């Protein structure tokens, strides 16, 4: 142990003599704004909204109902990433060798002493194995517990802390990460994750996982040859960014797979422990993260967003469910679904949220710095879309709604500073509300259509009975 510490100290002093004082230093950057740009692997605690207290109160109105679509919290990597992770130990040693032995440290944009030392001391957590791939982490559980407590704080009358199976409807997909996310959310509301029950998961989960049953959706070319994503990844800007990253680490050439692995582990580790930093994030300058994020945004823009017009029709059932649940005068008063990033992104696309006037393309990176479609802010780990329905008895429009995305009020140009008339919502989404979801995007079987039709019919009947009394 003493020999190891002595070696590290000597290395520390040696690097200190040759480091560039003006080089960017991730370890000393107090803001680290690039950690807000990690696309679907962004930590929720870093990008969540902070001004909900200015947006939830609606004069002369009382919140009555809530509909929630919640992505699972921070999770472990996929099996392939877990299997590849030991490669980082090899890269760690090569980077140290580049700087100490081969003397290939670049003249500019080199790793600072603190970052290089942190990389040298890094070790992979070998307890993360493929048998627990994509499982929810402890931080992921806290993500959901935290969102439940926050929304309950602002809407205590809508989210009572006593569980009632008629008042509350919970449902999650058939995965460990959404099951545990539901439990974290339930604990946040009721103080005990065992008090609440989730609805049975159907054999074909067409509401929360429609993409599993739609060949057309899975078959579109959103990241293959000829796609905007691939065009960007073969552009001069991309190739130069890859070369600059390699040079920063002391390499002449570095495989893109190695760069991707470093970026993935940087993003995972940052999300697992939001109060600490991942040493692998130091491998990238902030402007290089801009490029990496844009590539991810292109992939999701065409995979789940506005890149293909038909994507706006895909999450038909979720939109219909929201409209029907909030239109009904009877329970459940709170509906909360726990699902995945594709479901959340396609829901936002169906609702027309954060749509850019100019499509994202491989050739317009420079002009899209202020784009609305930024998956880091739309669908981070634990990303959530919440619709709150208000009763406004003294207003001309008796029913209103506010949409929240990750604790930020959603601004739609046909609403009044985020406050929408419910009648306008129904009119705006009339086409999708009246659609046969089996036919609206791709055929998924009659049962799904019957399920949604039955829900709408039940809602209509409940409304008639309510009005008669």
From TrEMBL:
Domain of life from the UniProt record: Eukaryota
Primary location group: membrane
Disulphide bridges: 61-392, 266-281, 415-420
Enzyme class, first EC level, given as a word: hydrolase
Catalytic activity: 1D-myo-inositol hexakisphosphate + H2O = 1D-myo-inositol 1,2,4,5,6-pentakisphosphate + phosphate; (2R)-2,3-bisphosphoglycerate + H2O = (2R)-2-phosphoglycerate + phosphate; 1D-myo-inositol 1,2,5,6-tetrakisphosphate + H2O = 1D-myo-inositol 1,2,6-trisphosphate + phosphate; 1D-myo-inositol 1,2,4,5,6-pentakisphosphate + H2O = 1D-myo-inositol 1,2,5,6-tetrakisphosphate + phosphate
Lineage, opening ranks: Eukaryota, Metazoa, Ecdysozoa, Arthropoda, Hexapoda
Species annotation: Drosophila albomicans (Fruit fly)
Secretion signal span: 1-20
Short name of any one Pfam family annotated for the protein: His_Phos_2
InterPro entries, per the entry: His_Pase_clade-2 (IPR000560), His_PPase_superfam (IPR029033), Histidine_acid_Pase_euk (IPR016274)
GO cellular component entries: plasma membrane
Family in the record: Belongs to the histidine acid phosphatase family. MINPP1 subfamily.
E.C. numbers: 3.1.3.62, 3.1.3.80
Single GO MF annotation: inositol phosphate phosphatase activity
Protein keywords: Cell membrane, Disulfide bond, Glycoprotein, Hydrolase, Membrane, Signal
Protein name per the record: Multiple inositol polyphosphate phosphatase 1
Subcellular location: Cell membrane
